[in-house]
Amino acid sequence: MVGNRSRAAIISDRRRITGLSADVIAELVAEVGPLWHERHQERLESRPRERAVGAGAKHRLVFIDRLLATLVHLRHGATHDVLACWFGVDRSTITRAIGEVRPLLATRGCTIAAGIRLRTLAEVIDHLGTSGQTGIIDGTEIRVRRPATGRKDRDKFISGKSKQNAVKAMVLTNADGRMLFCSRAQPARCADVTHARQLGLVKHLVDGLAVEIGHDRRSRT
């Protein structure tokens, strides 16, 4: 099966490559796998077909390979081209796999205690306010391939900070650096404060409990 060697390499050194233990990876497979299969089935059934659902060629990249490719991409910023070579599939397959799996991982939220997960920015702000903790917020950029010529928002991907094509996500942690929230990625030509406003951070701070939010460990506001 395509991906066996890549999967074996990742699983054999899972801590260094994905940063996750075997138990956590197994938990993700058990929890996210059925959601992926359900959405995939819905997509198949939602469009006109000449053949029955399930007919035709099977996936060359099974779910666990899609999950592992996504985890490696998120941890190391590996390009889709590199992952495609590693798993022995087309680049478009990796792009589609990451596009499908990443939102499912995001909906799980961040676990802060046994059985307690924070899934939205509003929940994170409430948690910080209730527990009296300080939040640290900052934007993180991942370099991407230059968008195709003719794309209307092409220039929006050029980061004012790195002067390279990139996407940016806003990350919120507690004072100890534990991640509590990570936004969806967007074109990098956007100031951190603007991104925070677009996410509704200001509204949550005004409407919720008093919370101290710093831009990073060296500068608090």
What does this structure look like?
It is a single chain. The protein has 221 residues and is an alpha+beta fold. The protein has 2 domains: 4-107; 110-220, no CATH class. Helices cover 46% and strands 18% of the residues. It contains 9 helices and 8 strands. The protein has helices at residues 4-12, 14-17, 22-46, 63-76, 80-87, 91-107, 121-131, 192-198, 201-207, and strands at 110-113, 116-118, 134-143, 166-174, 179-182, 186-187, 212-216, 219-220. The strands form 2 sheets. Strands 3, 4, 5, 6, 7 and 8 form a 6-stranded mixed beta sheet that branches. Strands 1-2 form a two-stranded antiparallel ribbon. Strand 1 (110-113) and strand 2 (116-118) form a beta hairpin. Helix 3 crosses helix 6 (91-107), helix 4 (63-76) packs across helix 6 (91-107) and helix 5 packs across helix 6 (91-107).
Overall strand count: 8
- Unreliable sequence segments: 217-221
Radius of gyration based on Cα positions: 19 Å
Q: Could you estimate the helical fraction of the residues in percent?
A: 40-55%
Mean pLDDT: 82
General shape: globular
The main pleated sheet reads as: 6 strands, mixed
Provide the structure class: alpha+beta
How many angstroms does the end-to-end distance come to?
Answer: 53 Å
Number of helices: 9
Domain tally: 2
Order of helices and strands: HHHHHHEEHEEEEHHEE
Q: Hey, roughly how much beta strand do the residues contain?
A: 15-25%
